[in-house]
Structure formats: structure tokens, C-alpha cells
Amino acid sequence: MEKLFDPSKSYMSCEKNIKTYLRSLSDSQLKIFFETLEYTPFPTLLMKEYKKRFKKVGS
């Protein structure tokens, strides 16, 4: 598997690309990332994507 957080990878170097990457994750992958939130290099973006995808109906 390709190293996702390799500093030499340009696709992870800006906020737009990180958002695109988070949107491309499956629900199960996003949940795993969210469970280990403190270990991610982009916790705020991860929280926003998680809340957007799993918000409660009627909220």
C-alpha cells in the first residue's frame, strides 16, 4: 500500500487535496480515521467530513 502521509507526495500537501482524499474514503475507512483522530495530521478537516457524512437526520 502506498504511504499516504509521505511528505514527498504532493496530493496530501494542501487542504483542497486532503478534503478530496477524505471524501474518497469509504464510510468504514472514515470511521477508522475518526476513531484515531488525535493521530491524524488534519483533525479539523476529518471532523468536518465525518460530521457532514454522518449527521443525524433532522439535525
Q: What Rg is obtained from the alpha carbons, in whole angstroms?
A: 12 Å
Form type: globular
- Total count of helical runs of at least 4 residues: 3
Low-confidence stretches: none
Q: Alpha-carbon distance between the termini?
A: 38 Å
Q: Average pLDDT, to the nearest integer?
A: 76
Task: List SSEs in N-to-C order.
Answer: HHH
Structural class designation: mainly alpha
Q: What is the β-strand count?
A: 0
Query: Which percent range describes the beta-strand content?
Result: under 5%
Mind describing the biggest β-sheet? none
* Helical content (DSSP H or I, runs of 4+): 40-55%
Question: How would you characterize this protein structure?
Answer:
The chain has 59 residues and is mostly helical. The protein has a domain at 26-59. Helices cover 53% and strands 0% of the residues. It has three helices and no strands. It has helices at residues 15-24, 27-35, 43-54. Helix 2 packs across helix 3 (43-54). The model has no long low-confidence stretch (mean pLDDT 76).
Task: Fill in the keyword field for this structure.
59 residues; globular; single chain; mainly alpha; 3 helices; 53% helix
Q: Topology, please?
A:
Blueprint: H1 15-24, H2 27-35, H3 43-54
Task: Explain briefly what this protein structure is.
With 59 residues, this protein is mainly alpha-helical. The chain contains 3 helices and no strands.
